[in-house]
Amino acid sequence: MDNSKSVIELERVVIKFSGDSGDGMQLTGTQFSETSALMGNEVSTFPDYPAEIRAPQGTVGGVSGFQLNFGNMNINTPGDYADVLVAMNPAALVANLRWAKDGGTIILDIDMFTEKNFEKAGCSENPLVTNKLTNYQIIKVPITSLTKEALKDLDLDNKSVVRTKNMFALGMVYWLFNRELDYTEHFFEKKFKKVPLIVEANKRVLSAGYNFALNLQLIRSYRVVKGKIEKGRYRNISGNVATAWGLLAAAEKAGLQLFLGSYPITPATEILQEIAARKDMGAISFQAEDEIAGIVTAIGAAFAGKFGCTSTSGPGLALKSEAIGLAVIAELPLVIVNVQRGGPSTGLPTKTEQADLLQALYGRNGESPCVVIASSTPSNCFKYAFEAGKIALENMTPVILLTDGFLANGSHPWKFPTMKDLPEIKTRIITQQTEKYLPYQRIEGTTIRQWAFPGMKGYEHRIGGLEKMAVTGTVSYVPENHEVMTYERKRKIQEIAEQLPLQEIDGETSGDILIVGWGGTYGHLLTAVSELREAGQTLSYTHFNYINPLPKNTADVFQGFKRIIIFEINDGQFYKYLRSELPQFNYLRYNKIQGLPFTTSEIKEFIIKTKEE
Amino acid sequence: MSTNTQYTFKDFKSDQQVRWCPGCGDIAIMNAIQKAMAQLDIPIENYAVVSGIGCSSRFPYYMSTYGFHGIHGRAGALASGVKCANPNLSVWQITGDGDAMAIGGNHFIHEIRRNIDLNVILFNNQIYGLTKGQYSPTSLLGQVTKTSPYGTIERPFEPGELVIGSQGTFFARSIDNNLNMNTEICIEAEKHKGTAVVEILQNCVIFNDGAYDYLTDKEHKEDRQIYLKDGEPMIFGKNKDKGLILEGMNLKVVKIGENGITEKEILVHNAKDPKPYLQLMLINMKYPEFPVAFGVIRQVEAKNYDMVLHQQIAEVKQKSPLKSMDDLLASGDTWVVE
Ligand code: SF4
Fold first, then answer.
1. How far apart are CA A494 and CA A609, in angstroms?
2. How many alpha carbons fall within 13 Å on the CB side of residue B18?
3. Which residue of A has its CA nearest to B42?
4. What pLDDT, on a 0 to 100 scale, did the predictor assign at position A7?
């Protein structure tokens, strides 16, 4: 073991904080990430928490984790395996040992390693004895008792004292990676302004942890080199907040008020919470009585001239299906955000999965096409939410935006844009008084209708869920008209391809293998591809954000390759879609359905294996 | 919002052919609503008529106002969205006993609980008409229909009870063939600030014909109906000689002039009483023991959601340092990389 105090320089480090749900691991992880981002590192995070709010204490089911990856550049994922694992109790160790990197460091609160806790964690014996831990540097620290010791002269009850022990762990890790304490200190000063005792307690324990590590000669200290990061102003952002802001930005650009009708559902709830808070910017949030009312109020608002949106996750999308069809036939602008999670049914509410692509594409009665797009990083949820709004408002159509639990909860520093960087949004609100407003008259040269809403004099009209007569919009059961309207609705969606950017290829435009992904797997695929390239491989990679319609050059992009591998966190939904849309190509697939993101190593292995075949 | 607009009921008719069955109660109800709209001082472009699914829900197509024919059961949610989006509109939700009491029950109770300023016209024909004759949540216990060939075994809802149970601020009942009463009540409903539920007993001539004959029968109707008016004694009958009194905890029909009863003993209707107990008893009066209550049974003041929503937005917006998206993007902790 290296006992010297020399500092080791690293390019990137993965840390996982894990403990009981009540141990404050999410806060600990967030503080570390934000401090690192402020110190000029790239960061990517992934919180991983149980579905139960208070699962039984000390059990494996109740373990809450926060993984983060930081470094000097190209941090696109929260990392596969942890260089440093912090385990606040035996259950956390048992649950996360498989994520610790060989040769990595494990910091334990040894006070918690008692017979009783072994039992709660489902171990018959001490997991430190039963597991092979020789490959790790194990640092056993009596965190609980040292925390108590640090606070013994403060007039604080035992519960509050114990609650600060996460700061001891954070302090140690701060020392380990040469982080500064001020950001976290300021955080407590702001957050507990009214309870100075709590501020004092947290600050003391934080420095106690830091000093303990400093004095503990056994620990190596690392320095993560500052990155060559693009110049500009940055902030941290999570996928859900970025989504909410993207919708708000689209509303502002279009000059419309945002109306979000929604119902709380994991992992999409923060979107509703954020928009509710943004009533202070004039947004209307409506927490509906159920998922159906969430979307139907939004459709009502769209009918009344607002930018109507709804947010949900898989099961909620299922409940909204009929109403999406209503928006399709009524040809109203609407954005439906689906933060995907593992299914079917309630499935894995807190785990990620690209579960609902086929539901988004096809999950409605009748011929009911709508636009489907997907974001691929936490921060580009902003871009694609904005884009979803732009497409919906400019084409008078519902748009489904797919994000997922991984993107929604993940966060990273974001060089945020200003509004003038964003493209215009041209709504279809009717401006010219024609002879008589005909709601289904198409704007010349397009299949898009014009928007008129209650309060506008002279444009009174009726729409609804019954088939519309072309042009006039009155109810029609004429057989030929139904076919005409079905194709008009279809064409309207297809023609949106003209507005989309072309699909780009990263790498050579022809060759043996093309790697394909869509949505939230971007970071892992990109990292795997870059690492293989560093190792001398030639690779081509393309990632989809626009699913329906596909970018119009998709076939040209695929043309140059003998084999196309589609990587997805599901059982091959994009694979099925591409096989039906572009059947002429030779597709292979790699799927994982564990409620977890890919690891870059499994992607690399599959690519290498396929190349050799 | 005075506009000097002069309308007649014909201005509210669209060019679409009305496709309800000849003799259907819906036709008479639509006439009453159009008459009411013509009398209200609201510009035609500010009316939005929304509906769910069912015979009555075809209503928006026959109106010349803005209209939205939604999906089954969701009229309440659609209306809520329209009104919360733009509180200046006069929003009319056309719904039936299937649409509002069965598939849309959840939206019905919640719009009422929120007290969104809507006019909810509930066409109650105690049957599913559009699907051709199945029992509804208001069909009478034991009623024989296509899906209850041996009689229903479900107890029916009394819509007014649901309104009160949802903390409703306005409930009125009327009947399709009484044009004047319907018109008056619809005007009251529109003037009420909050969710105004108007249950209109409606005859379906095809699948449940005669369901309300006992009430409309010329010979007896005055003895079987009571038209309640706020502040007026609860007197009814062909000869205006019957009334309602409270005996213990219960209502009782008495004859004025008999057993020493004078007009003074007769209850006076108080629609504005926030305590709903007596109103609930009136809602539940059933023939033959009692006359069936019509008129505005409950009308109390309470803040309406759509108004408070926009007030709250205006207040927090005014106080907020965030004036634009650029402010929001740059809010909180940001840092510069050089
Ligand atoms: S079926 Fe009954 S409710 Fe429907 S239109 Fe005919 S009469 Fe009216």
1. 37
2. 19
3. A455
4. 63
Q: Which domain holds residue B45?
A: 9-211
pLDDT confidence band for A5 (50 / 70 / 90): very low
* Chain A partners within 8 Å of B64 (Cβ): 460
Q: Which of these, B84, B2, B82, lies nearest to B42 by C-alpha position?
A: B2
Q: Is B67 inside a domain boundary?
A: yes
Which atom of ligand 1 has the smallest separation from the CA of B123? 3
Residue with tokens 């001239």: A305
Check pocket membership of B207 for ligand 1, CB cut-off 6 A. Answer: yes
Nearest to B71 among A281, A454, A465 (CB): A465
Alpha helical stretches, state H, A331-433: 357-362, 380-395, 405-409
Q: What is the CATH number of the domain that holds B114?
A: 3.40.50.970
Residues A167-187 have a mean pLDDT of 93
Of chain A, the percentage scoring pLDDT greater than 70 comes to 97
Q: Is A41:A102 a contact under the CB 8 Å cutoff?
A: no
* Residues A71-111: tens digit of each pLDDT: 887 888 999 999 999 999 999 999 999 999 988 899 999 99
Asked if the C-beta of A459 comes within 8 angstroms of chain B's C-beta atoms, the answer is: yes
B272 is a domain residue:
no
Confidence grade of residue A51 (pLDDT, cut at 50, 70, 90): confident
What's the CA-to-centroid distance between A335 and ligand 1, angstroms?
Answer: 37
The two tokens of residue A318 are: 């299922």
Q: SS3 sequence, A261-308? A: EECCCCCCHHHHHHHHHHHHHCCEEEECCCHHHHHHHHHHHHHCCCEE
Judge whether residue B335 has pLDDT over 70. Answer: yes
Enumerate the residues of chain A whose CB falls inside 8 A of the CB of residue B11.
Answer: none
Give tens-digit pLDDT for A483-523.
999 999 999 999 999 999 999 999 999 999 999 999 999 99
Short-list A194, A196, A176, A205, CA closest to A27? A205
pLDDT digits (tens, 9 = 90+) for B209-218: 999 999 999 9
Q: Per the CB < 8 Å rule, is B45 touching A279?
A: no
Count of domains forming chain B: 1
B265 is a domain residue? no
Q: Is A238 in contact with A410 (CB distance < 8 Å)?
A: yes
Contacts with B63 from chain A: Cβ below 8 Å: 462
d(CA A519, CA A570): 12
DSSP string, B253-298: EEETTSTT--GGGSPBP-TT-SS-HHHHHHHT--TTTSPEEEEEEE
Q: What is the 3-state secondary structure (H, E, C) of A538-601?
A: CCEEEEECEEECCCCCHHHHHHCEEEEEEEECCCCHHHHHHHHHCCCCCEEEEECCCCCCCCHH
β-strand pairing of B47-51 with B66-69: parallel
- Residue B173 placed within a domain: yes
Beta strand pairing call for A137-141 and A100-109: parallel
Inter-chain contacts counted by CB atoms under 8 A, chains A and B:
205
Residue A57: is its pLDDT beyond 60? Answer: yes
